[in-house]
Here is the input.
Amino acid sequence: MSKKINLKLLMGNKSEKKMDVDDECTYEELLNILDINPETVLVLNNGQAVPLDEIIDSGDLTILKIVSGG
Here is the structure.
C-alpha cells in the first residue's frame, strides 16, 4: 500500500508536489528518494519538526533547507 503526501520544498526556491510513498517509508528514506542530504534540512509535518527515523505520517510535509555560516 502507499499513502499520498503533499510536499513543500523550501530550498532556495519554493516548489510543491504531491507524491505517493510506501506505508512504511521513513522521512530519511524520503530524503534519499529526493536525493537530499538529511544533514542540510529540517523536515516538518504539519508544522512540527519530526525525527528522520520515524515512519511518514500523512499530512503536509515541508522540507526546509538549513542555512548557517559566519
